[in-house]
Design a protein that fits this description.
alpha/beta; nine-stranded mixed sheet; two-stranded antiparallel ribbon; 9 helices; 11 strands; globular
């Protein structure tokens, strides 16, 4: 590969936790970034022993070690965009926020405010929620809460399209950033998301794929958005492209029969439809 080709591949940083089943977290980010044409860099915040449907153990990494990973990567690579995923505790959140304030500059930052795993396992400590709101969200280019996370950030229920829209608008004003509220938990056959960019409200529609019991959709979505931003797309186009990618990853999911039943996983690297 010559230098011109290498220069066209944007380094994309993910700051997130490790998922040993490789369906969510850093591993999902690696696959999504690679599939969409980026070069994935990783700063690990935690190690999680989990599978789809179960979180067994969580171990958080030292805050100074997290910051040092980010620092050495910025020193070595022309990072074009980044995302954060699972951060864990208040000290980890504050460390990431501080190092980003020092080094992030105008680099696009997508913040996925990971709080609870799809299985229900807790991934963000209670005292860290306020740290996320105070120190990290105001630095984001885009925040991508699902409906449950949006409720925590907004302080009111988010159960309908109307509430999603009001929530996105209010959060965008509160944190002076762009907000994508994901509608994967809507109680119907759709999985529509709403994007608030300044005074604009844009709905991204998708049909729900029923019967898929997996995890990592939020990780995949945010990593995909960051990759598209790192390739120079505008925000609306980046979100739309990422929405199509994650929807295909769900629709074309893997399923294996095992002694405990059927286990599902997102399809990042072997998609066939366009």
């Amino acid at each position: 590969m010559d230098a011109a080709v290498a220069d066209s591949i944007p380094p994309i940083l993910t700051i997130a936790g490790s998922d040993c089943s490789a369906g969510a977290g850093i591993q999902a980010d690696l696959k999504a970034i690679s599939a969409l044409g980026g070069y994935a860099l990783t700063a690990l915040t935690s190690v999680v022993s989990e599978t789809p449907g179960k979180v067994s153990l969580v171990r958080l990494l030292d805050a100074d070690f997290i910051a040092d990973q980010v620092r050495v990567l910025f020193e070595a690579f022309p990072i074009r965009a980044a995302k954060t995923g699972m951060l864990g505790g208040a000290v980890q959140v504050q460390s990431v926020a501080q190092i980003w304030k020092e080094l992030g500059g105008k680099t696009p930052l997508v913040v996925d405010p990971v709080m609870v795993a799809t299985s229900g396992g807790k991934l963000l400590e209670d005292d860290a929620v306020q740290a996320v709101k105070t120190h990290l969200l105001p630095q984001a280019t885009l925040i991508t809460p699902n409906m449950d996370e949006a409720e925590v950030l907004w302080g009111a229920p988010v159960t309908t399209r109307e509430e999603m829209e009001r929530c996105a608008s209010d959060l965008a004003q509160t944190f002076q950033t762009n907000v994508l509220v994901k509608g994967g938990h809507l109680p119907d056959d759709s999985a529509d998301d709403v994007l608030c960019t300044g005074d604009s409200i844009i709905w991204l529609e998708a049909e729900r794929t029923h019967g898929v019991q997996t995890h990592g959709t939020g990780c995949t979505y945010s990593a995909s958005i960051a990759t598209c931003l790192g390739q120079g797309m505008d925000l609306t186009s980046a979100v739309a492209e990422a929405k199509e990618f994650v929807s295909r990853a769900i629709a074309e999911h893997f399923a294996w029969t095992h002694h405990a039943g059927i286990v599902h996983a997102l399809n990042h690297l072997h998609q066939t439809s366009e």
